[in-house]
What does this fold into?
Amino acid sequence: MRLITSRAWRRDAAAVSSFRRQLAYSSLLLPIVLILLSLLLGLYNIQPQTIVKALLSLIFPQAAEGISATELTLILRIRLPRVLAAALIGAALAGTGAAFQGIFKNPLVDSNLLGVTSGAGFGAALALLLGGTALMVQGFAFGFGLLAVMLAYMGSRLYSSAPLIVLTLMGILIGSFFTSLTALTKYVADPLNTLPAITFWLLGGLTGVTWNSVPLLAAITLSGSLFLWAVRWRLNILSLGDAEATALGMNPTRLKLLIILCATLMTAAAVAVGGVIGWIGLVIPHAARLLVGTDHKQLMPMSLALGASFLLVIDNISRTLLPAEVPLGILTGLVGVPILIALLRRSQTVW
Amino acid sequence: MLEAENLHYAYKPEKPTLRGISLTLRQGTILYLLGRNGCGKTTLMSCLSGLLRPQSGTVRLHGRDLRSYTPAERARHIGLIPQLHTPAFNYSVREMVLMGRAPHLGLLAAPSRGDYAIADAALESVGLADYRERPYTQLSGGERQLVLIARGLAQECRILLMDEPDAHLDLNNQQRVMERVARLAADGLSFIISSHVPNNALMYAHRVLLMKRGTTLAYGAPEHILTETLLTAAYELPIEVIRAEEQPRAIVPRKVSG
It folds into this structure.
């Protein structure tokens, strides 16, 4: 009798684990479908075949025949960059969140743990205060995001023992330092023009995204995601702690620093283009865990795919359903929290 | 196959943790490290597994200085089984065992079908083949120890260091783990086990290293080391060795209060 139950358990569990593997990899199709659907959505109604023709015209210019110049501009120059940016930013925030949760052995952190978002926020606020162009805002955000993590890293080098714990502490300190600087910037900003601009930027949004921002964002996000995907199995081992990882023949400190560097670049690029979009890095990995389990081999692709999909949906809601564009940082929480609570009800033993 | 000679280690220079420890581990044997809390057992294990670099003295693995091995090379020979712990994320038993393949794979590689087969075979040889899809944290302490032994087997190492495998385990689970260890030793694996249960050393050890404040109090065959005099000195407490039919059968502290 006992033998039968354990066999049944084994078969069921094996089926679950192979289902999870398939789910993780087929989920990668979801953002692609959503990108195409998102191109359809907008105040101006466009036929699906027009979208397909317009996209084809990127490769075969003759496919654009019969499409009005307005539609072509709307699809290729306005909707496409925005939709691509949403997918890339969502993937970057969720993927780096999953990676940080793994290497810091803590399911309650995201890639802002070391202050990159706070630094980027200050950079953007400073650029807006100085009356900079959109490019300058992006450049400052990216630069100060990297600077914050670099300062945290340099601070942690002052102590030789337990480098990662000190790095975390330094990151939190540097992050709150930049948050204070951002508050200072807002305090001195002109309350009629500059202050609303800073506030709006800090809440996140993709309204102003053009093709200028996409190539660098895409290059950083795609190469970074590729790296995180390549080390996804090593994340399992890193999450057991340094002693076990070392005993298994790894150099955990070096690999963690590489992952931190990669995640910081990805987050800084994402925040520079989309502003501060909170919540995704923390909660999407949890949603992914509920669907495919804790194994990072499946969790990493699932987080990337879910993050991209989630931000696409949120951005679509932001630009179509509501009369005025609601900042993404607000919507991610308003929409995401009920979804996560619903997911949590279904499964309770994941972590 | 694993020899340590005159190891010294100090976390703080003024307070050395290890002071001149030497030992030899032969193939197919079980070496027990006994001593009070803080006597340096865990530090010694860390030096032997290459996690810590002894400040003086050498560790030789198959006649070669352990420092000349790369971390991955070393991990193909020596495995570490940590104390009972709960990981931050709840992996399946099979995933835990699969991690033993890390020193055999490139940094960017993921385990292949062959690696899964090795992990499954390792689980089979500790008698947990039916457990492979179960969540690791839902297993009993003894089963978790067996899973970590299986991870060492998947690592294909011939030397396993176990840090207090009997801690937090009831007698049944202790016995289950130790019987498996004894069987693997009979198959040619070697074990260094730190423990606070001298009775298990009495039953399973081939050699015992009795430590006190970072030094060797006594080292040799269990019948010479597990004596009332030496144990009393090591634990700083009157200890009795109870014999039956001329054989030592139990080690118990003497009751001091009324």
Summary: The two ends of chain A are 31 Å apart (CA to CA). The longest helix of chain A spans residues 69-103. DSSP finds 15 helices and no strands in chain A. The interface with chain B takes residues 6-7, 9-10, 13-14, 16-17, 102, 105-107, 230-234, 236-237, 239-240, 243-244, 246-251, 255, 289, 293-295, 297, 349-351 of chain A (CB under 8 Å).
